[in-house]
Amino acid sequence: MTTNNPEILVSIRNVVKHFDISGGWLEQIKFDNGRITRKQSIVKAVNGISFDIKKGQTVSVVGESGCGKSTLARTVMGLYPPNSGEILYQGKRIDNLSDAKLKHYRTRMQMVFQDPYASLNPRMTVGKTLREPIRFHRPELKEGQVAEKVAEVMAKVGIDPDWQDRFPHEFSGGQRQRISIARALALDPDFIVADEPIAALDVSIQAQILNLMMDLQEKSDLTYLFISHDLSVVEHISDVVAVMYLGSLCEMAPKKQLFDNPAHPYTQALLSAIPKLGHEFSHEKLKGDIPSPINLPAGCVFHTRCKYVNDRCRSEIPAQRAGDGNTIVACHAVEEKRI
Amino acid sequence: MSELLKIKNLNVDFALRERTLRAINDVSISIDKGERLGVVGESGAGKSVLGFSIINLISKPGYIDSGQIVFKGEDISKYSYDRMRTIRGNQISMIFQDPMMTLNPVLSIGEQMRETVFAHMNVSKAKANEICVEKLKKVYIPSPEKRLNQYPHEFSGGMRQRIVIAISLLTNPDLIIADEPTTALDVTIQAEIMDLLLELCKTDNMGLMLITHDLSVVSQVTQRIAVMYAGTIVELGDTATVAHKPQHPYTVGLLGALPQRAGSEKRLNQIPGVMPGLAKIPAGCPFSDRCSLVGDICREKRPQLLEKTNGIRVACHFVE
């Protein structure tokens, strides 16, 4: 990982994000065997993740619910401050900036959320929703220029600019997600974080939105961080895929490599669970359930369900190691060439 | 194989203040004993209403307007409320989408399971517990005797759905209707639950009606597929043929929209527009305003579900 590589747009360095959910000190007091103890509950959502996102690429983060992929996305966006670690944008550190200094970067990176029913204000017309970010970030623009910009982004995402005075409830789910994308594009950003942008949509509408996102990427030279649990969607749109489990990065590799030759045991199990059209049902069974992120297992977080587990896995956390051909794998068994 | 359930020309209506909307339009379909049938469609296609109407669970203002639902040779669509209760949850059980919603959070799972047993069988509490433990073992819940006294929040999402399946098995039903049973679950858990359903259907020769929006899941578990669009069945046939050689333009479009079908093609095949709401279904073929093959006849005449080549039934004027 070089510091000032112009190809790299965003770098994530050892990011840790924990949430304290123990409440006030009265709630933390517990009676245990006749003794009073104080107990804190901390959700360890993201535990030391590092990777780079190259300009113009689509990097996808996949994992099951609760693995910390959305937390990671929000931390990258600066919506949560990380507990430790750094986020670099074009080589400059942005996670410790003041709000005023961050304002410039906010125009460069935008977010599209999962549920287009919840992420658009139901009491604002579409036009008003789209004008708001432009007016806030570019106060020098005149009314006419703002209106022009709004019409331009609406046309870009395939919504008739004459519909500016309509409210979100007058649009279908797919159209609303197009409007969310238009809002993200209103400031001509370079980097878009899309958190499950198609999970709430029907299959035929999913295809429309994915096509739109790929077209926009080509036209406007966008870089995507794409968060999803749907592996077949990820396989279609990404250049690089990162697999997360319980707050840690298991494996990160170029798409083809990851889907053809998954190295990490969790990636292998996850890929075999994808239902494939018209194939016999066969998948690798994972035993047990996902442990709670409050009480993380010692050592490798996956060791409780892994079939290659040994004593080292139970005690030592595997580091993210570079493998062949731009891959990162965090697994003792892979390192020791046991698999 | 003998016929377990036969639905004939079923129409389900919802009476609103201004007008009556037809949610299920002339649907005929059957399930043999031990057969696994998949019902797929996008949201609003009427697949859940179809499932609910079989066990007469449609609530007002919905009602069955006409048609027959013949279960083991008897038309159950006109059964009284009390008589229906001897079938519903007994010979036909249903599994719903969200296990968090279907289990009562303030009752232990033992209480919830015994409730079902007592509703349909005249047994002692000890015997009821025995039945519950047996079914929990069947869905691979470890140490079921102990688990019986626990509450839903003490189980993970996948385990909760397995308990829901165990409840549906308590009365040894002949048919299970599963309405999006894995939509709320992760892929690895989904694979586990589908494995379990498949195994149970095979060992107990149970019929399964699997309602889902996910074509790939259906294609792996079922023997036949019915594709629904705007309240009608547009294509019906054996799973392998429908999955590999779809005939109806809607099914073709839907399968083409799946990323895994696109292969190296960068752009996904997309169907223009959205499924019309019940009030706006076009006259003639319901798919006519989104179809690329549309002709004059499609806007005038509603196509019938007729048998075409390969033994597949398709409702389209243009499929030979």
From TrEMBL, chain A:
CDD domains: ABC_NikE_OppD_transporters
InterPro entries reported for this sequence: AAA+_ATPase, ABC_transp_ATP-bind, ABC_transporter-like_ATP-bd, ABC_transporter-like_CS, Oligopep_ABC_C, P-loop_NTPase
Gene3D superfamilies (UniProt xref): P-loop containing nucleotide triphosphate hydrolases
Entries under Pfam families matching the protein: ABC_tran, oligo_HPY
Keywords from the named record: ATP-binding, Nucleotide-binding, Transport
Superkingdom assignment: Bacteria
MF terms (GO), sorted A to Z: ATP binding; ATP hydrolysis activity
Keyword ATP-binding attached: yes
Domain ABC transporter span(s) in chain numbering: 29-271
Biological processes, Gene Ontology terms: peptide transport; transmembrane transport
Identification of the protein by name: Peptide/nickel transport system ATP-binding protein
Origin organism lineage: Bacteria, Pseudomonadati, Thermodesulfobacteriota, Desulfobulbia, Desulfobulbales
UniProtKB/TrEMBL annotation, chain B:
SUPFAM superfamilies: P-loop containing nucleoside triphosphate hydrolases
NCBIfam families named in the record: oligo_HPY (TIGR01727)
InterPro entries per record: AAA+_ATPase (IPR003593), ABC_Ni/Peptide_Import (IPR050388), ABC_transporter-like_ATP-bd (IPR003439), ABC_transporter-like_CS (IPR017871), Oligopep_ABC_C (IPR013563), P-loop_NTPase (IPR027417)
Species whose genome carries this gene: Desulforhopalus singaporensis
Gene Ontology molecular function: ATP binding; ATP hydrolysis activity
Protein name: Peptide/nickel transport system ATP-binding protein
PANTHER family, A to Z: DIPEPTIDE TRANSPORT ATP-BINDING PROTEIN DPPD (PTHR43297:SF2), OLIGOPEPTIDE TRANSPORT ATP-BINDING PROTEIN APPD (PTHR43297)
One of the GO biological process terms: peptide transport
Subcellular location: Cell inner membrane
ABC transporter domain residues: 7-255
Assigned GO CC terms: plasma membrane
Topology in membrane: Peripheral membrane protein
Family: Belongs to the ABC transporter superfamily.
Protein keywords: ATP-binding, Cell membrane, Membrane, Nucleotide-binding, Transport
